[in-house]
Amino acid sequence: MKKALLVITAGVLMLAAGCGNKAKTETTAAAAAETTAAAETTAAETKEESQAAARDEQTFKSGNGWQCRYDASLVEAKEEKDGAVFTYTGKADGENGLKISFTEGKQPEELLAEVTESWGDQEKISRTEGFFPGAPDKWAFWRELKAEDNDGVAKSAVAGEYNGGVLCFEFTTTPTGVEETDIQISDVLAEVIDTMEYEDFEPQVMYSYVPGIYTRTRTEEIGGTEISAEETIVLNPDHTGTLSLQDNVGIIWSSTELKEANAPDSSWEYTIEGDSLLLKLGEEWVTFEKMAVPGGAGLAKDHVLTTDTEGCDTFTQIVDRKLGDGQGYANVPVDGTDVFLVSPSTYEGGENKEAATEAELFIYKNDAIEYLGCVRTGGTANPLMMNDGKLYAAGHHYVGKFTVKDGVLTVAEEVRETFDAAGNATYTYASDENTAEVSSDEAKEIFNRLFDEYAAGEVLEFSTVKR
Question: Among 467, 276, 464, 459, which Cα is nearest to 383's?
Answer without folding.
Answer: 459
